[in-house]
Design brief:
By secondary structure, the protein is α/β, with parallel strands linked by helices. It has helices spanning about 5-20, 30-45, 50-60, 65-70, 80-95, 110-125, 140-145, 155-165, 185-190, 220-235; strands spanning about 100-105, 130-135, 150, 175-180, 180-185, 190-195, 210-215, 235-245, 260-265, 270. The chain folds into two domains: about 5-70, no CATH class; about 80-270, Vaccinia Virus protein VP39 (Rossmann fold, 3-Layer(aba) Sandwich). Helix content is about 45%, strand content about 20%. Strands 6-2-1-7-8-10-9 form a seven-stranded mixed sheet. The longest helix is centred in the N-terminal third of the chain and has 19 residues, at about 5-20. The termini are far apart.
Length: about 270
């Protein structure tokens, strides 16, 4: 198939998803989207996107499986630990000044980032007055996140990341091992509200002091990146913080002037202006 024909099929496919299921992938980065759709073709045993489109539209039960390929499912506890160290050093002292703390983890996937922040807040004595909103468009990922357990084989890497983040406790203090899984403390789970939210179509739902959206913007085109960052800025209180991933940048964003770099190496920005 020619590149032009593939582009047409891709546009028709994502338009059909939006019309049928109200999930909007039309502004996702083209190369990443094509790569993910290629994997989905293999998974569903289809030769063309037209065949896959027909199956997805006729069988709503297949759509959740497709979402596993179209949404980001790669994360770890305390991923990029030096960035968590920067949060401890530069952001936590400001969070201490608030009577209550609200954080939005956008694109939370299966919850690793949300639990990492909950552990960090507990170590800093802030968890009891904190609430973390963890959002994603993938209902299956949210369900796994809310369950609060991960394969025990992943814990060694989690623990090393935690240690390198400037940990003030052992990670083992925050979970129990059972049936080959690490089950995180109920108190951590109770501090997190998992909810469906699309950065492509939904609006701001709360005022927060910190937005964490790490290594998600790289999967969006420029227009959707600007929409997402605009939502984050609207959600942030005066002087609030935006925390991005090492692969993300505000350099060419329409909102670049609305933030100042607080910790460049940790991709932490602070809202400026009104």
């Amino acid at each position: 198939m020619s590149a032009k024909s593939l582009d047409i099929e891709t546009r028709l496919f994502v338009d059909a998803l939006y019309q049928k299921y109200h999930y909007d992938f039309r502004a996702y980065a083209a190369d990443s989207l094509k790569r993910r759709l290629g994997l989905a073709l293999s998974r569903f045993g289809c030769e063309t996107l037209s065949q896959l489109q027909d199956r997805i539209l006729r069988d709503p039960g297949a759509f959740p499986a497709l979402l596993e390929y179209l949404t980001v499912q790669v994360s770890d506890l305390f991923r990029e630990p030096a960035s968590f160290g920067a949060i401890r050093e530069r952001v936590v002292p400001i969070l201490r000044t608030y009577p209550s703390v609200k954080i939005w983890v956008a694109g939370c996937s299966t919850g690793e980032e949300a639990y990492s922040l909950a552990i960090l807040l507990r170590e800093e004595g802030l968890l009891e007055r904190s609430l973390i909103y963890a959002t994603d468009i993938n209902a299956g990922a949210l369900k796994r996140a809310e369950a609060g357990f991960y394969d025990i084989e992943r814990v060694a890497a989690f623990s090393e990341n935690h240690r390198r983040s400037g940990a003030k406790s052992s990670l083992s203090e925050h979970y129990a091992a059972a049936d080959g899984r690490a089950v995180f403390d109920k108190a951590l789970r109770q501090s997190i509200v998992f909810s469906d939210h699309s950065l492509a179509t939904d609006s701001v739902f709360a005022e927060v002091q910190l937005v964490a959206c790490r290594n998600v913007l790289i999967y969006f085109n420029r227009e959707l990146q600007d929409r997402a960052v605009g939502l984050f800025r609207e959600s942030l209180c005066h002087g609030g913080f935006l925390w991005l991933g090492l692969g993300d940048s505000l350099r060419f964003s329409a909102w670049a002037d609305g933030f100042r770099e607080l910790a460049p190496a940790g991709r932490i920005f602070q809202k400026v202006g009104s």
